[in-house]
Amino acid sequence: MKRFIIILILFIFTGIYKSQYNEQVYKKAFSYVYENPDNALKLVHQMLKNEKNIDNQIKLYQLLSRVYMSKRDFDKSLDCVLKMKELSKSISNPEQKIKILNSIALQYQNMGLYSKTIESLDEYYKLCQTLPDGKFKTLYTGMNSAVRGLVYKNQDNNELALEKFFIALRYIKQVGNYENSIANTSVILYNVGYSYFYLKKYNEAEKYFRQSAEVAQSAHAESLEAFAYKGLSENYTVLGKHQEAIELLKKSVNLSKKVGDLVLSEGIYKGFSDNYLALQDWNNYEVYNRLYIETKFAREQSELASLNKSIDALNLENNQKIEEQKSRLNIILFIIIAISSAVFIGFLINFISHKKRNQLLIEKLNQINKITT
Length: 373
Prior knowledge:
CATH class of the domain at 20-89: Mainly Alpha
Largest sheet: none
Keywords: Coiled coil, Cytoplasm, Membrane, Repeat, TPR repeat, Transmembrane, Transmembrane helix
Mean pLDDT: 83
Helix content: over 70%
Shape: elongated
Strand content: under 5%
Radius of gyration: 32 Å
Main location: cytoplasm
Subcellular location: Cytoplasm
Protein name: Tetratricopeptide repeat-containing protein
Organism: Epilithonimonas mollis
Distance between the termini: 103 Å
């Protein structure tokens, strides 16, 4: 009877803590990242309930981080990254570690912490080199170059950024649509467009913004398509094509309704504001300029909150490293003291034994002298 009760209890608890992870649901959530991120959040949170498998947890937190990043909710995205970082301590799979380090690098890049971004990229580039050739290695080698390109673009080194982006595109095109690489291609093309835009090469910029929109459309990534049109409209604004720019911004608004990306919304409102100002349409200018200022403030507050949390996390990490160094130094100091003590004791024992031996020799010599006299 006792045995039956134990089995029944185990069965009940197994049912309670049964994994909610489902690969098909995961893929569905992944497809919503750039189309309907709120739906993606619901699906991922549902799968995370009672999930005990560490690999599944990491995979789900990585997707959550990506979703929050697409909404520019850096605070929650950082929470997911920190959770992944903590869980990664118990895994040895290099591919899983590379994915985590890539998420960490992207998080730091979006927050403007470029030295930490490069640190993560260097770490996972070395890991990539240890893997056998294949789609995973090819994709993440390309992603490594892409994120480096983002850093250089944000530091106004657009020539070097373009070099890294084109390297990334060469790698990523080799893997087809492995791990959503088509959406990543759209993101890279969008940033190529902006690199040319900042170099005032507007024809090249238009070409790559259009390519980004086409690729995003093929991947059903509506927010990425909206970003591409926003970039193209900015290009038109500079060229004085204000009405064309406004039409593209209207397309962006329609595509981004479900997204809630503060950076995208801020760019769209600024675009409307700039173009209506150029056209001297004061009513629309005032409306969109106010929306731009409000959205910019909301985005800055979100980034500030996540930056404070990141600083706290980095301080904790540095304190842990300092404690580890202290422990290591204490061990080294203990070894030095132990060796020094052993050497001193050895020397003292030798000294005492030599003194005793010399005393015995002196006593023998005294005895010999007494006999001879």
